[in-house]
TrEMBL record:
Phylogenetic lineage: Bacteria, Pseudomonadati, Pseudomonadota, Alphaproteobacteria, Hyphomicrobiales
Record's protein name: PTS system nitrogen regulatory IIA component
Sequence ranges assigned to domain PTS EIIA type-2 in this UniProt record: 4-147
SUPFAM superfamilies associated with the record: Phoshotransferase/anion transport protein
Pfam families the UniProt entry points to: PTS_EIIA_2 (PF00359)
Length: 174
């Protein structure tokens, strides 16, 4: 499922950071450069999402995510942090696995099912063990499997903030 939009260039192993903000900042720079987005816009989106509530899902995993109206297809990155950092997740376990997802507003109807499926994949003990032991981006890709994302809807529905998801219109003037 995850490798459909994740390439080996989107994978960073054993990234050293000083905390959550540092981790999100370094991830934002990498993902912005790969996607052609503005680094500060990506970082503000990730940080605002995090401020609404931790994107830590437990067991050392976080899934930061933002809806963007400036992209037409999903963008993702996988980062393994070393050492782990505190994301204030539900179990207070420090996070070392970060799967970041930027999703187009034009496909908002497919976002929550895909986010949910990504969380299920990353919660699986065997998957987490494989990701923590991976020695290369290729091993990460193999661990995550190959089931494709559902097709994106061509429905153009506007982004909504009521889902607990940050959209660029919420922070353009920030």
């Amino acid at each position: 499922m995850i490798p459909y939009i994740l390439s080996e260039e989107d994978i960073s192993l054993d990234l050293a950071t000083k905390g959550k903000h540092s981790a999100l900042s370094r991830i934002a720079v990498r993902i912005a450069r790969r996607s052609g987005l503005d680094e500060q816009l990506v970082l503000r989106g990730l940080w605002r999402s995090e401020c609404l509530g931790s994107t830590g899902i437990g067991r050392g995993v976080a899934v930061p995510h933002v809806l963007f109206d400036t992209i037409s297809s999903p963008v993702a990155s996988f980062t393994r942090l070393a050492p782990p950092v505190d994301f204030q997740g539900p179990d207070d376990e420090p996070v070392d696995i970060v799967y970041t997802l930027l999703w187009p507003c034009s496909a908002v109807s497919t976002f929550l099912p895909v986010l949910s499926q990504a969380c299920r994949v990353l919660r699986a003990p065997r998957t987490r063990e494989g990701l923590r032991g991976a020695q290369s981006a290729n091993e990460v890709m193999a661990t995550l499997g190959t089931d494709p994302f559902p097709a994106l809807s061509t429905n153009s529905s506007p982004c909504r903030a009521g889902l607990g998801i940050v959209t660029p219109t919420q922070f353009n003037n920030a």
